[in-house]
Specification:
Distance between the termini: 54 Å
Structural class: alpha/beta
Number of strands: 13
Length: 263
């Protein structure tokens, strides 16, 4: 058996992802995890010397598929702004040989958005009608793509401060969902929302749940910045909190870490 893995670049990954039902794959993965057919250890954070950044390793085993793997994602500090990349290596549990090396940027975006959508499908009321999205980047676009048909949304509002002079992204968002309502403020987006998706790269709070005028399901993805969080950690005391994996997420999610230590 050849020991050189098949290499998939970003463009190829994007093309392949468009051909599969990513949320349904995530549902199966979570069921396998619950049934003990998969293993997902805690993520491993390694800091670079002299504050030059860090990298995080995400490990996993899919026993029924006979593979294990690791995604490694660096956060590289640069003068022009931080650089984040990600690559996934898939290995055979039978031969011990590498099977696949894949640029995981597209995988990460799709997996993040699809995981959120699986959560929304499980937790949002069936009669939810108003969806709010904060953010407009690739991850926000993927969230919009996967969630737009999940409920009978009467209104989908989106706010991002960068959209005021970015007609290209506005057009791209509209091509994903023509009825999308792009608003001028965070407050306008989240007012009366049943579901609020936070899809930002912010290292600090984006909204304060205590300011909402009605109960809402809030989803948050966070980013690679140390202890990044999109809601104030103290707000978790007044909320029902769900995470993707109870055994490991509280030890890695920024708002949960801070809430556990300080609140």
């Amino acid at each position: 058996m050849p020991s050189t893995p098949h290499v998939i670049n970003q463009a190829q990954a994007r093309e392949l992802l468009a051909q599969v039902d990513v949320p349904q794959i995530l549902r199966k993965l979570f069921r396998d995890l619950a049934a003990g057919h998969a293993v997902q250890p805690a993520q491993q954070l390694v800091e670079f010397p002299q504050g030059a950044g860090d990298f995080i390793n995400y490990l996993g085993v899919l026993a029924q598929d006979g593979v294990y793997g690791v995604k490694t994602s660096p956060y590289i500090v640069r003068e022009q702004g931080p650089l984040v990349t990600a690559w996934t290596l898939l290995m055979s549990m039978q031969t011990g040989q590498p099977l696949l090396l894949c640029d995981a940027g597209e995988l990460t975006t799709a997996r993040t958005a699809a995981t959120t959508v699986v959560a929304v499908d499980a937790l949002a009321p069936m009669n939810a009608t108003h969806l709010a999205i904060i953010g407009s980047g690739k991850v926000a676009q993927a969230h919009l793509h996967y969630v737009k048909s999940l409920r009978n949304w009467e209104r989908i509002s989106l706010y991002s401060p960068s959209l005021s002079d970015d007609a290209q992204t506005v057009n791209l968002l509209k091509s994903i969902e023509p009825s999308l309502n792009i608003v001028d403020s965070r407050e306008a987006a989240i007012q009366d929302a049943d579901v609020i998706m936070l899809c930002t790269s912010s290292a600090g709070p984006v909204i304060d749940p205590s300011s909402l005028n009605k109960p809402a399901l809030i989803t948050s993805i966070s980013t690679n910045a140390p202890r990044a969080h999109e809601v104030p950690p103290q707000s978790l005391n007044d909320m029902q909190v769900f995470c993707d994996y109870r055994l490991t997420t509280p030890g890695s999610a920024g708002e949960m870490l801070i809430a556990g230590e300080q609140h």
